Known about the structure:
Distance between the termini: 7 Å
Shape: globular
Structural class: mainly alpha
Number of helices: 6
Largest sheet: none
Strand content: under 5%
Order of helices and strands: HHHHHH
Amino acid sequence: MEDYQRRKLEYFREALTRLTRPAEEQRAWLRENGLGLADELATEFDDFYEDLASWHGDAAPVLAELDRLLARMSGEANAHLWEVEALVAEPDWQRVRELATAALAVLPDHDR
């Protein structure tokens, strides 16, 4: 794998790891980075998901499910899901954590 792709996969893993974290850790990360909405967590995932399609391996089905869930959560009608408080209160965010954890467990290693 070329260095550029390897770095992108590493950043993708970091984005997925943030999606696995408990709500309080996610909220702290958003605060530390001066971010007011939880959508940044999904944006990071989305930034790399499509571009790394060929590297998903066994993680592809669960990543696709995660992508569909985040897309379903989007839109003006669901703006409340992107408030920082939603990370704790909304069941969709718990499902995001579960899917991200499952994907991370089977995502190909850097050097494959």
